[in-house]
């Protein structure tokens, strides 16, 4: 079988199995390409047109079909099966100890947080770091910054440590176990966070693929707002004078904006999709009361 036929067959099978997407791809065809290219080691975006005709060896075919079967029957996100996810153009090791990276903050990182961060930050905190994707990608755009990756879950931090090493950042990036800010010491010039923000009712209704992710990474009380609100309340104590907080709360942003209509936050817009990410300065956070 060649690559094109294999992608066609797999995408048809994925379509018939009525899978749910949203962990890196949003349709059966891309999901099949993602699987095949990863197993065959074909770099994304660099294929020269001849790749469709490439024949799979018997071993490659067996591996691909095995993973496709597991994708269908176990409803595991493809990233867990491949133990790899892409974020901000970078590969990250992932497994079921962490959420699959997909935050729209990737786009902001690639723009070096412009226009919200004027000077390159010296100290950065990625709070609720999971795989470490946000903090590590940030460390790679601010090459002089010291970056702390914090998470309450030791399991998640083990994954983050694998990624620190994979990106050769052991000298500048460290993983810290902390319940929000509990074991952290400021001041940070930039705090960036994609925390849990999904309400209990929404968690109960998630499609099977999302139920394979750690609930600790999704669930937040108070209609999803408890953890984002706690971060907004505590962040001023950990930000430097000109520090900035970038906080994601996804679709919970509408409820938040209803409750706090006067809070001077900036809601970011993304070219590649995604919503509910705010930026606010320490100064504005102190003036506002959350
Ligand atoms: C939505 S996931 C985000 C992971 C990563 N930042 C990303 O964008 O892929 C949220 C993470 O917050 C962690 N977490 C949950 N409650 C926490 C708390 N109280 N303090 C610190 N981390 C927490 C979870 O373990 C999980 O890894």
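Sequence proposed for the structure above (290 residues):
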């Amino acid at each position: 079988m060649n690559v094109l036929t294999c992608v066609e067959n797999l995408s048809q099978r994925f379509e018939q199995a009525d899978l749910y997407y949203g962990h890196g791809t949003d349709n059966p065809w891309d999901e099949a390409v993602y699987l095949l290219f990863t197993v065959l080691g074909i770099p994304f975006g660099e294929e020269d047109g001849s790749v469709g005709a490439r024949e799979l060896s018997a071993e490659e075919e067996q591996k691909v079909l095995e993973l496709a079967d597991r994708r269908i029957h176990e409803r595991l996100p493809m990233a867990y099966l491949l133990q790899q996810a892409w974020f901000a153009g970078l590969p990250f090791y992932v497994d079921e100890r962490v959420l699959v990276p997909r935050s729209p903050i990737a786009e902001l990182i690639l723009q070096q947080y412009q226009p919200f961060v004027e000077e390159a930050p010296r100290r950065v905190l990625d709070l609720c770091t999971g795989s470490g994707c946000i903090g590590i990608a940030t460390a790679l755009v601010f090459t002089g910054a010291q970056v702390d990756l914090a998470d309450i879950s030791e399991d998640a931090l083990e994954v983050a440590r694998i990624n620190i090493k994979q990106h050769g950042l052991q000298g500048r990036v460290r993983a810290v176990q902390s319940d929000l800010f509990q074991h952290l010491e400021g001041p940070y010039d930039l705090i960036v966070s994609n925390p849990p923000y999904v309400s209990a009712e929404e968690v109960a209704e998630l499609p099977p693929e999302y139920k394979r992710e750690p609930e600790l990474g999704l669930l937040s009380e108070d209609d999803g707002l408890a953890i984002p609100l706690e971060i907004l309340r505590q962040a001023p104590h950990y930000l430097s004078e000109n520090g900035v907080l970038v906080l994601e709360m996804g679709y919970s942003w509408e409820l938040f904006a209803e409750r706090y209509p006067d809070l001077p936050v900036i809601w970011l817009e993304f070219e590649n999709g995604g919503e509910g990410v705010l930026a606010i300065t320490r100064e504005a956070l102190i003036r506002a009361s959350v």
